[in-house]
Write a structure and sequence with these properties.
The complex is a heterodimer of chains A (about 250) and B (about 45). Chain A has about 250 residues and is an alpha+beta fold. Chain A has helices at about 10-30, 35-50, 55-75, 80-90, 95, 100-120, 135-140, 150-155, 195-205, 235-245; strands at about 125-130, 140-145, 165-170, 175-180, 210-215, 220-225, 230-235. Chain B is about 85% helix and about 0% strand. Chain B is rod-shaped and about 45 Å long. The chains are: A alpha+beta (about 250), B mainly alpha (about 45). The interface between A and B is medium-sized, with 24 and 18 residues.
Chain lengths: ~250, ~45
């Protein structure tokens, strides 16, 4: 039986399966999907145990339940599956439409604004669009469509400004919209101390490939959310370096 | 910063990063392959 593994075609099939399963497991880490993987492992392990012990009734029940389980998975995890399929078709657009110098100029404006907002302890939530569209979130806010400048960013997030609540979306060299509603994170393992602004920032980065900068109004700390992962307590230089690295890929 | 540690990819990190997830995924991949392979063989015999 194990001689079949020595076949190069078999090894290739297993390696491809391994990569696909690993990518799925990693993308589900820290989300509700992690419990799904645990559930699948428990079901598979139970199936093999029942088969080994020749418990035919339990094996039959489990085999038939597994078919329902697959349907339940598709229904419950429909949003996650949709996002996974969307991510499959991603292409790099942002960096091709803008030159390196232009990207650096934009990042300098963002970093300058973030630095001032952080020092003044003014809360901010800034999403930088990459490949995936953010139209759903843009429509939830107020359209601005203005050239990106540090001063405008500071103005929008001023606590007395009408658009300071919610998130701001940057697309290329433009501030597209402000006061946008971002989805809350579904990560159950997030620190309980994180506020709604951080949860929204992480949420948007889970649902899209946007880079989300969060400035805490409590302590002025700057964080960056990428693909559902939050990197906290960044200096302006750290932020610039990471953003450059991400946008130059 | 943790973020930068994740970005540097070398051979050691390629193996050790998420090591147990990689092992579990490999076991799952082998199980899935064996199951499907057996099902296909059964179908051919019939």
């Amino acid at each position: 039986m194990f001689l079949r593994f020595l076949n190069p075609k078999t090894i290739l099939e297993i390696i491809i399966l391994w990569i696909v399963i690993y990518r799925i497991v990693v993308s589900l880490q820290g989300t509700k999907g992690a419990y799904l993987i645990r559930g699948v492992i428990v079901l598979i392990a139970s199936y093999f145990i029942f088969q080994k012990l020749n418990l035919t009734v339990l094996s039959w029940l489990l085999t038939n339940f597994f078919a329902f389980y697959l349907i339940i998975i598709v229904v419950i995890f429909q949003p996650e599956l949709r996002e996974a399929l969307i991510r499959l078709g991603q292409r790099h657009i942002f960096y091709k439409s803008l030159g390196k110098e232009e990207i650096e100029k934009i990042l300098r404006e963002i970093a300058s604004a973030v630095n001032i907002l952080s020092r003044k302890k003014i809360g901010a939530l800034i999403a930088i669009k990459r490949e995936m569209g953010l139209n759903d979130y843009i429509e939830s806010g107020i359209l601005i469509n203005a050239d990106l400048t540090s001063e405008l960013l500071q103005n929008i997030f001023h606590p007395l400004a009408p658009l300071h609540d919610g998130g701001l979306i940057i697309d290329g060299a433009k501030i597209v919209a402000a006061s946008c509603l971002f989805p809350h994170s579904e990560n159950l393992n997030l620190e309980k101390t994180l506020g709604m602004r951080h949860r929204s920032g992480i949420g948007l980065s889970e649902h899209t490939d946007a880079l989300v900068i969060i400035v805490s109004e409590e302590n002025g700390h700057v964080s960056l959310a990428i693909n559902g992962q939050l990197t906290g307590d960044l200096t302006t230089q750290d932020l610039l370096t990471i953003l450059k690295g991400q946008l130059s890929k | 910063m943790r973020f930068f540690k994740l970005r540097k990819i070398n051979l050691k990190e390629l193996i050790t990063y998420n090591f147990w997830l990689k092992i579990v995924s490999l076991i799952l991949a082998i199980i899935v392959w064996l199951y499907v392979s057996n099902e296909i063989t059964k179908g051919v015999k019939i």
